[in-house]
TrEMBL record:
NCBIfam families: PRK05692.1. It comes from Prauserella cavernicola. This is Hydroxymethylglutaryl-CoA lyase. Belongs to the HMG-CoA lyase family. One of its GO terms (molecular function) is metal ion binding. Residues 6-274 form the Pyruvate carboxyltransferase domain. CDD domains: DRE_TIM_HMGL. Keywords: Lyase, Metal-binding. The keyword Secreted does not apply. InterPro entries: Aldolase_TIM, HMGL, PYR_CT. Pfam families: HMGL-like (PF00682). One of its GO terms (biological process) is ketone body biosynthetic process. Gene3D superfamilies: Aldolase class I.
């Protein structure tokens, strides 16, 4: 039942850094991206074209992409919330975008300044135009398991919102545990709910934050259901500025260690990745929260 190979969707440069208080210099971000690519990661979520006041850390998106040397065989998706964001992303020459929706009313309000329904109205023309321009479009769905304001989120509600994103034209749906509260049984139930609604695991990815230390266990539950795209961030950096109590993502190193043990392919050089996260931790002035980075002496 386990996939033979997993695509690691590296979100460190975007989700990992977006919550960082002091602005990381563009040169450091560029080196981070290049070292991640050199370590064998082939999907690097580079930045976001969101309102610069909402996420000041990523206000340098244009500059970053202008100076980025894109490697062959590596894709560099970016987050885009609306028409203005798509204009900016197209001008920067990106080939892959991700829109990001909320499964709950409160987080749609807090993260996108819109209602649950309005967010889809905002995304529809963005997805249509992006696809007409030949871009690939991923859809994120946040608060798939629990929401800090609304509590547990019913699987049927999540499946409804996720199905809408796929129907609007997203080629892949990433299920986000934004605040890291999910447990493995809940992951299995949500994936089964999607399957029952006609959405196969082939179009699903998982995106776990590690607040309660469950990210790796949840990932294993998803792998056993056949999910083969997993989001993670190098060194376990991350958190969402608009979600109370969100901490870092599943660390890419922890994921790689698990996949190696399972004999599942991933293409990443763990030593090079650990060295990159150790270097990034120095830049940020605090140790990596990843257990594997610490164990391997990063
Ligand atoms: P708004 O204030 O409602 O925007 O924000 P608006 O449409 O009313 O426009 C107001 C002004 O902003 C206008 O300028 C627009 O041009 C400008 P004015 O005419 O007043 O001079 N504007 C923009 N400027 C630059 N880029 C843009 C843009 N859009 C409007 N894209 C908005 C609405 C969606 C823009 C805002 O809420 C926003 O930027 N939100 C982003 C929040 C965010 O980035 N959150 C973190 C990412 S999501 C996440 O981390 C979860 C995830 O990891 C999965 C998981 O863990 O669950 C993906
Ligand atoms: Mg996230």
């Amino acid at each position: 039942e386990l996939p033979s190979r997993v695509t690691i969707w590296e979100v460190g440069p975007r989700d990992g850094l977006q919550n960082e208080k002091s602005v990381v210099p563009v040169a450091v971000k560029l080196e981070f991206l290049d070292r991640l690519a050199a370590a064998g990661l082939t999907t690097l979520e580079a930045t976001s074209f969101v309102h610069p006041k909402w996420v000041p850390q990523l206000a340098d998106a244009e500059e970053l992409l202008a100076d980025l040397t894109q490697r062959d065989g590596v894709r560099y998706p970016v987050l885009v919330p609306n028409a203005r964001g798509l204009d900016r992303a197209l001008a920067a020459g990106v080939g892959h975008i991700a829109v990001f929706a909320s499964a709950t009313e409160t987080f749609a309000q807090r993260n996108l300044n819109s209602t649950l329904d309005e967010q889809f109205a905002m995304f529809e023309p963005v997805i249509t135009r992006a696809r007409a321009e030949g871009l690939e479009v991923r859809g994120y769905l946040s608060m798939c398991f629990g929401d800090p304001w609304e509590g547990a989120v019913p699987a049927a509600q999540v499946a409804r919102a996720g199905t809408r994103l796929l129907e609007l034209g997203c080629s892949e749906l990433s299920l986000g545990d934004t605040i890291g509260v999910a447990t493995a049984g809940q992951v299995e139930r949500l994936l089964d709910t999607f399957t029952e609604n006609g959405v196969g695991v082939g179009s699903l990815a998982v995106h776990f934050h590690d607040t309660y230390g469950q990210a790796l266990t949840n990932t294993l539950a998803a792998l056993r259901r056949g999910v083969s795209t997993v989001d993670s961030s190098a060194g376990g950096l991350g958190g969402c500025p608009y979600a109370e109590s969100a901490t870092g993502n599943l660390a890419t190193e922890d994921l790689v260690w698990l996949l190696d043990g399972l004999g599942v392919g991933h293409g990443v050089d763990l030593d090079a990745l650990v060295a990159t996260s150790a270097w990034m931790a120095e830049q940020l002035g605090r140790p990596s929260p990843s257990r594997v980075v610490r164990a391997l002496g990063g």
